[in-house]
Amino acid sequence: MEAITISKVFKRYTLDEFIAYLQTFVGQVRFNEVHVHGTWKPTIANFRERPGDYYMHSMYRAHLQRGFTDIAQHATIDPDGYIWDGRPLLVPPASATGYNDSDDDRVHPFMFEMIGNFDKGVEKLDGAQLETAVGLTRAIVSLFGSRIVFHREMNPLKTCPGSGVDKDTFVALVNAAIKPPATAKPVISAEDANKIIKFLSAGYSTTSDAEARAEFNRLANELRKASGQKLQ
Ligand SMILES: [Zn+2]
Q: How far, in Å, from the CA of 34 to the mean position of ligand 1?
């Protein structure tokens, strides 16, 4: 019997290139959440031995063997801070059972992996890789109003993205990057913005529609941005 070769081409982007690519999806899909993962295996050391797309293909094959239709994640951040594409962005990810929003209503999480074992005392998420992770998360939150979720919040048996990655610190970095420069004057006062957000949340609580709720979140965050407040 002939072996079936299933292959996929993985494209490598810089953060800026990937953000430009993401922007073309605004209006086509709503990422209600951004799911943050670390691969655990491959490790950064593995990647250093076999750089390039070797581990993209190895993860792809492993995920197909688990019965997934494609690689699980939409994007993978390598230790040099490059982003590799993955599953098409219009398709829900295989992020965590029960959290993938896998109907095809074009509202689902964006899932990314960071190559490395980020458990305490093993490898470190830092430098270009951390910068890209923060920048990518910031772009998704800004463009789609997504909520940031670590894998371990959906599956307490996991440490993913790694016990060495503190969520509050990570979110603070994302927010710091979003914060307008100190010289920029807020467009509206925080007080007024919060009043409008109160009105929005009244609407939010009248619907359980995921798309409508994601839109409320996005609008509330737009107001927070315009008034120089932290995103939620
Ligand atoms: Zn994970």
A: 12
CA atoms within 13 A on the CB side of 128: 12
Whole-angstrom distance, CA of residue 48 vs CA of residue 184:
42
Comparing CA positions, the residue from 39, 13, 70 lying closest to residue 165 is 39
Q: For ligand 1, a single-atom ion, which residues have Cβ within 5 Å?
A: 37, 151, 160
The C-alpha angle with vertex 63 and arms to 34 and 106, in degrees rounded to 5, equals: 40
171-226 pLDDT, tens digit per residue, is 999 999 665 555 556 678 888 888 888 877 887 778 888 778 778 788 888 878 87
Domain positions in the chain: 12-178, 190-226
CATH number of 12-178: 3.40.80.10
The amino acid at residue 190 is A
